[in-house]
Amino acid sequence: MTNSLRPHGYQRTPLPQEAAPTPPTPRAEEPGQQASTPPAPSAPAGRKPKQRDAFFDNAKYLAIVLVAMAHSWEPLTDASRTAEALYMVVYTFHMPAFILISGYFSRSFDMRPDRLKRLVTGVAVPYVIFEVAYTLFKRWADDDPTYDFSLLDPWYLTWFLIALFVWRLSTPLWKLVRWPIPLSLAIATLAAVSPDIGDDLDMQRLLQFLPFFVLGLCMKPEHFQMIRRRSVRIASVPIFACALVFAYWAAPRMTSVWFYHRDSVQELGAPPWTGPVMTLALFGCSVVLVSCFFAWVPRRHMWFTVLGAGTLYGYLLHGFLAKGSRFWGWFDNHEWLHKPLGEIAVTVIAASVVTVLCTPPVQRAFRFAMEPKMAWAFRKDPAEQARSRTATSA
Fold first, then answer.
1. SS3 of the chain: helix, strand, coil, percent, to 5
2. Where are the annotated segments for Disordered (predicted)?
3. CA 128 – CA 7 distance, rounded (Å)
4. Structural domains of the chain, count
5. Which of these, 80, 85, 168, 367, has the minimum number of CB atoms within 10 Å of its CB?
């Protein structure tokens, strides 16, 4: 991600002069996000609660580690072609993997009151809290006391929360249409060639990443079984190797901003016809690398499986350190960080920090912000009251 900041949120790449009546400012990059699934409804009396799938918890943990590592590589990419190549490869699939998992676990979402409540408390409220917290942090850490609050213009990592809120609300619609994935790709393509969409709710990113959420909605358990076959796991090794070689070749020739999905092609200085081409090409590359990533995710319970339930914590909390490292000039003031051993050290530190931030003690400490109960804010649902009475009498 980039770390140049505008008055609020992310800056956009300037449009060519003839295409921009007013010059937009460059903006900073996320994502990450992380796909945290709201807790399932309480099991009826006498039934055991549904067990978590270790595969998905493992996938979420490994993906959030890659998010943190990529954030730590961003300041190194200007001077290191290897770091830039790794950065581009990881950015091709780490957020698409999160978003796909989010879509997969949104398949049962409807407008039922209890699910709407969980959407508000598990996504909307954390968005508001962290948007305010990041703004206060920016004011203090970057010595910018006049930095504006804005809930319409997500700053840094919070874009994923507002996008997830909108995507999940749209789930019933995607269940109705006949060809959801082609339709979502058409919407993403139109967004990619529409520079006037604006920054409200980070709509460019929301629409350009939409196909991955819709793909997750359309997936079934047997699709994940296919991805996890031994033949796919073997094939993923040369595929990843080819991706790294291509990224190493492309690093000095191509901007990594394409992978952020936050700008239109006009803002990137590219002709409009590249919108459909790059949308489809990046979607295809991302799907292939996401599949390769899933193929190597362990299926059994691992030491880090429990951390998969806390990836939203790691995602949002590590952003303070990622941005603070830039505000305080750590990478500018320590030249050794740009050497091979320094780059390895930065990678290990990033992975370790985000791992700690996903642990149960951290989850308990910040649950008030991530998963607030807020029973006081909602009316009692008559159907829910009836179920509670039935369960009590049984």
1. 65, 0, 35
2. 1-50
3. 18
4. 1
5. 367
Helix (H, G, I), strand (E, B) or coil at 5: strand
The H or E element that residue 324 is part of is helix 311-327
pLDDT digits 0-9 by tens, 13-27: 554 444 334 444 433
Residue 336 structure tokens = 């050794």
Residue 206 in domain: yes
Query: Which range among 23-27, 63-67, 349-353, 376-380 shows the weakest confidence by mean pLDDT?
Result: 23-27
CA distances from 256 to 13, 91, 250, 263, 282 (A): 12, 8, 9, 12, 12
- Per-residue pLDDT of 187-207, as tens digits, reads 999 999 998 887 788 999 999
Rounded distance between C-alpha atoms, residue 212 and residue 210, angstroms: 5
Q: Locate tokens 């990443």: which residue?
A: 209
Would you state the pLDDT for residue 386?
A: 66
Q: Which domain holds residue 87?
A: 54-375
* 93 is a domain residue: yes
Question: What is the C-alpha separation between 86 and 70, in angstroms, rounded?
Answer: 8
Whether residue 162 has pLDDT greater than 80: yes
Within-domain flag for 23: no
Cα-Cα-Cα-Cα dihedral sign, residues 192, 155, 66, 230: negative
Sequence-distant (≥ 6) Cβ neighbours of residue 209 within 8 angstroms: 95, 96, 99, 163, 188, 261
Start-to-end Cα distance in the chain? 54
d(CA 385, CA 56): 32
* Identity of residue 381: D
Query: Is 244 exposed, middle or buried (CB count within 10 Å of its CB: 0-12, 13-18, 19+)?
Result: middle
What are 30-64's pLDDT values in tens digits?
333 344 344 433 344 444 556 788 999 999 999 99
Tokens 């900073």 correspond to: 28
**Does a structural domain hold residue 394?**
no
Which three-class secondary structure state does DSSP give residue 394? coil
